[in-house]
Design brief:
about 575 residues, alpha/beta, Rossmann fold, 3 domains, seven-stranded mixed sheet, six-stranded parallel sheet, about 40% helix, globular
Amino acid sequence: MKKTIGDFLLDRLSQIGIHKIFGVPGDYNLQFLMQAEKRKDIEFVGNRNELNAAYTADGYARIKGISAILTTYGVGDLSALNGVAGAYAESVPMVCLSGVPPLYSIKQRAFLHHTTAEGNYEDIMNCYQPFTVAQVRITPQNAIEEIDRVLQVCIREMRPVYIQIPSDITFFEIEVPDNKMISWIQKSDPLQLSELLHVLKNRLQRAKSPVMLLGNAIDRFGLKEITQNLLEKLNIPFATQSAAQAVLDQGLPQWIGEYNGGASLDSVKKLVEHSDCLFGINVKFTDSNSGYFTQNIPENMIDILPFRTTIGRQVFEDVNAADILNALVKNDLPKNTTIYASSNKFNSQTRWVAEHGKGLTLDRFWLKMNHFIQANDVLVTDAGTSMRGVRSLSLPSDIMIINQPLWLSIGYSLPALFGSLMAESERRHVLFIGDGSFQLTAQEASAFFTHDLNPIIFLVNNKGYTIERSIMGLYSAFNDIPEWNYQKLFDAFSNNKPYSYYQITTEDELEVKLQELEANPHKLRVVEIMIDAFDIPKKVQDSADRIAFFNYGERGLKELNRKI
């Protein structure tokens, strides 16, 4: 059967669940866009720039499981690269498509625009190699096998891949296979699986204090449901790393809280660090989720990764996490008889009573949010006080959190919200973003009006980079940002479409305006929260103190002493 190269690629994208491609048109990708425009199964969704497109695709993939972006060679590719690197760090599968110069001009090493005019057509590919798990430049000779290979790697590794599409070949016809693309994950080696299962059963049978520690991306690797089945069957307590907040319901009686090394609650730290059978699932210790490397984990932790497991120095290769967890669920293992107290670690039942005329603080705002967040919400948070504030909440069931706890690129959340809304607009989506982060990617807010999307946006206006202030330079001008009239900005973005805007300065205003906000679910709603520039919650400052010492040593301590 004959098909054009462009249509074959689009077929394959559709078959693996990609039905929207985010990006920006450019002169090297227009022919491919013409082919995409004629299809009913794939839609191109334009962004304001390529960086925003990558962030949008990231947010979309968190819900849909995979995404795609389209850029043009050089300028577009490098503009998107920060967002692609974030997806790589956070285990988000993304197919990066790039329209590149004609194949003949690449072979001739022609001096073209969007290049450095040195005939080097490997430089952009080299930039993408560290941040993608597979790369290819398509030709008529390699298209069949290479497209399938690269997409298979994306699905298996749950990380971005990069495909260059020369502008002159997308309409070339080639012989293509009749079969649809089939994605699969290789089953575990039976002997390795059997040996590991034997070891784990012995450990569990002898264990007096088993605990499970959940890391990032277990949902992306399809481990969420089976993990919950196992911990409920064994009735063992579990903690989450900060990157895995709400990956399982915090209302489960087995949940004990967040483990963050020396910064953890004493009760959580004791259970995790003194467990005689600690199960880690996709755990990775970074500075920000380990209390700056103050974790004290048993050396014989059972470290279950997607395709291998280690127990101390013992390594079991070619064992899929899903296979071992399923096998444990099916085995007759002892059930812990402990009855756990409520897992309400943050006291969400604390009453909120607004004080008339009292200026709003971050601590009081987040206390109110404990009563505002609803089951099934999608919460999108940016780096900074917003992410730390959401981490303090006691969340209801079926919450999804979209953020970048490892890459921490400010400005990520606004385009990511656009992506999550394009993936599942029927859910309530709530964004928490600071003014510093908002100013980086603000233009993508216009997309909410273009596509008739109705998120709730809490914009914290505290006139600068609060996290940086708390680390160093509390009164320094470099932590200030220009003051914008955000309501007029949204007026410009809206193009006369209806939306609601609230500016909140006091607690009683927040109480009243939130009631109005919830009564208008069919509009975009922006809530600008006016916070003093030097309002820094204690937990934020404690974290900043650790960062200052880690980054700057004694100089950091001296700066902290000057603040005090």
